[in-house]
Model the fold of this input.
Amino acid sequence: MVGEPVNLNEFQELARQALPKMYYDFYAGGAEDQYTLEENMEAFRRIMIRPRVLVDVSRIDLSTYVLGYNISAPILIAPTSLHKLAHPEGEVVTARAAAACKTIMALSFTSSCTLEEVASSCNAVRFFQIYVYKRRDLSALLVQRAERNGYKALVLTADSPRVGRKEADIKNKMTLPKLKNTERLLSLEASSDNGSNLAAVAKETKDASFCWKDIEWLSTITNMPILIKGLLTREDAIKAVKVGVAGIVVSNHGGRQLDYAPATITVLEEVVQAVGGRIPVFFDGGVRRGTDVFKALALGAQAVLIGRPVIYGLAAKGEYGVRQVIQMLKDELELTMALSGCPSVKDITRRHVRTELERLH
Ligand code: FNR
Done:
């Protein structure tokens, strides 16, 4: 028994106790050997902070801007699917917590509430994440609905032409509930002989031929800025800048897609350098501590997104839990900044961290 949680990792244990095993495994799991899942967190432990002392840290300002929106801290909510498996009201509750914390929520394409329900439930700045379907007309419809309902950016997830093999889901015979956003438009009845239909549904619906040149199509059907989520290399970062997207999210989908993809924090700087300040770079994967947020910012991220901890907060304690998760991370970041001599987010620089490579040299 954990008792009152004092950090994000303890929320994971509370969620494990609160959820049926099938759902907990779905949220917590990663692909195949789960190497990338674990490395996402481990790699942070190999980065040291280089604190500066005797700086006036009597006031710490965590606030920052993301695509022009002022938020209370550089911590956003990542798009994660199916929040109703964690809480009866699903994403509506998560969105309310985002608003209360004055941060941005990226709503998953595969949410359990409709994008309209989420839009009308809170006044948080919202982004909409999208996978492109083989039925381009359906994708276009969704994009238009998101824009009409006040979503401020489109997050195109690029690392999932197919769904990664999550063996716990196969063992548990995890099947996809009805997807609300496309419920009346598309039937998702793919079955699979391995017990779970998650991969089969995705294979049947998603357009695995979608590639760089199709981003142009996407930008012709919306005025929302487009962020590409799921890049891990300098080569792709250069392409992203070239096609004119508004930003990048360095992400390996929380270790749920390609196992043995590198931990995101180990490739963040490569992407940041390739982009050269032309567009903002965001980051997700394994952020569990304020020190992790600090390290990602020092390596060039403008803000981080958190995935699983938000779901764990939601499962354990509903809206209050999500707020607690975000508040804990903010409090830890604030303390880290104070102890490192950084009174504001823009004071966090590359000189404030030492990577493993630098240590070895
Ligand atoms: C995800 N993620 C994800 N990403 C996305 O673009 N669309 C989606 O629908 C989902 N769904 C989803 C479900 C679950 C249960 C998880 C855990 C993750 C990936 C997510 O946006 C993010 O990249 C990772 O969660 C970040 O890693 P952490 O914070 O969970 O370690």
